[in-house]
Amino acid sequence: MSRLTGQLPWTGSKDEVPDEDLYIPPPQNYNLTRRANATLLMLARNSDVDSAVRSVRELEDRFNHKFGYPWTFLNEEPFSDEFKRRVRNVVSSSASFGLIPHDHWFQPDSIDETKAAAGREKMVEDNIIYGGSVSYRNMCRFNSGFFYRHPLTLNYKWYWRVEPDVHFHCDIDSDPFLYMEDNDKIYGFTITMYEYHATIPTLWDTVKQFMKDYPQYINKDNAMAYMSDNQGDSYNLCHFWSNFEIADMDFWRGEAYSKYFDYLDATGGFYYERWGDAPVHSIGVGLFARKDQIHFFDNIGYEHNPYTHCPKGSGLWERGKCACNLDRSFDYDGYSCMRQWDRIW
């Protein structure tokens, strides 16, 4: 019986699915003895169907056809029949399609729209990417504080965030979810970089006030030295690029991160400025987890235009049959924060 719907899994034709929002194909020969309570998670629109299918197909080919983890797709509008049919055609495991609740996505009534509009106009004048977009802000807020509360994700502890139009360049022959679980990890990344200060001018001041108000949540073995060059007085803008994340949703659901997100959300900074989920997640895990609970997945070759991580560890590129160019890996590019990550060890 399906954990997601309480119904028996459907194993017939993909064109005769009785429940439009869940398809479970016939059992595959994954030859596994153990699997984590995890999902591959994508936020996408119907218009993303071509790029979404490409991303799914690549991760299936490089990883999931061997491990059979279920996919979860979320959208602020109902998924089209075309989107669901094309995704079902390339997944080796189950695929569920969920509608995001209105209050989790749209700008809250508490936001002063006159003030928010003025902020957007200023960012447009300053040529800040997505500076005038409300929908982008909705997405950042949703990814910061709501995706792990969706009815479809509540079934799971772990997620791997996958976006449309990303690329996986290497075979992944071991299970990253089980690695996280067995090694007491909370958050995994492949690329780290600087944020645009103009999008978050008051974020760090808000974080500092939170730390002052709630010191009990700050982990004594935190990763502050990755985020700040002066013991927390200012933010150096380093963050984990959150279009790739393998992480523990129970951490986001926990008391510390929940208090932190609510504190940030109450300021309206997601809309008055353009706070991204990448710095919000990175600061949260950097403060509330031990630094050794954050993991760099060097073995996963990953690309989100314009940046690529290509494995550089001894033998990883060869063992993964990687297609990426080692010389183009972003790891120690001038805009990368890997040097800040390395120094905390």
Q: Give the DSSP E fraction (strand runs of 2 or more residues).
A: 5-15%
CATH homologous superfamily (4th level) name: Spore Coat Polysaccharide Biosynthesis Protein SpsA, Chain A
How much helix is in the residues? 25-40%
Report the C-alpha radius of gyration, rounded.
Answer: 20 Å
Structural class: alpha/beta
User: What can be said about the biggest beta sheet?
Assistant: 8 strands, mixed
CATH architecture: Alpha-Beta Complex
N- to C-terminal distance: 46 Å
What spatial order of strands do you see in the largest sheet?
A: 1-4-3-2-5-10-7-11
CATH class: Alpha Beta
Number of domains: 1
Q: What is the N-to-C succession of helices and strands?
A: EEHEHEHHHEEHEEHHEEHHHHEEEHH
Mean pLDDT: 93
Query: What characteristic shape results from the CA principal axes?
Result: globular
Count of helical segments? 14
- CATH topology: the name is Spore Coat Polysaccharide Biosynthesis Protein SpsA, Chain A
Low-confidence stretches: 1-20
Count the beta strands: 13
How would you explain this protein's 3D organization?
- The chain has a single domain, classed as Spore Coat Polysaccharide Biosynthesis Protein SpsA, Chain A (Alpha-Beta Complex).
- The strands form 3 sheets. The chain has an 8-stranded mixed sheet with strand order 1-4-3-2-5-10-7-11.
- The protein has 345 residues and is of the alpha/beta class.
- It has helices spanning 49-67, 81-88, 102-105, 113-125, 134-145, 176-182, 203-213, 224-227, 249-253, 255-267, 269-272, 277-288, 316-319, 338-343; strands spanning 22-23, 38-43, 71-75, 95-99, 158-161, 167-168, 187-189, 192-194, 238-240, 245-248, 294-296, 302-304, 307-309.
- Helices cover 35% and strands 13% of the residues.
- The longest helix has 19 residues, at 49-67.
- The radius of gyration is 20 Å and the shape is globular.
- The protein has 14 helices and 13 strands.
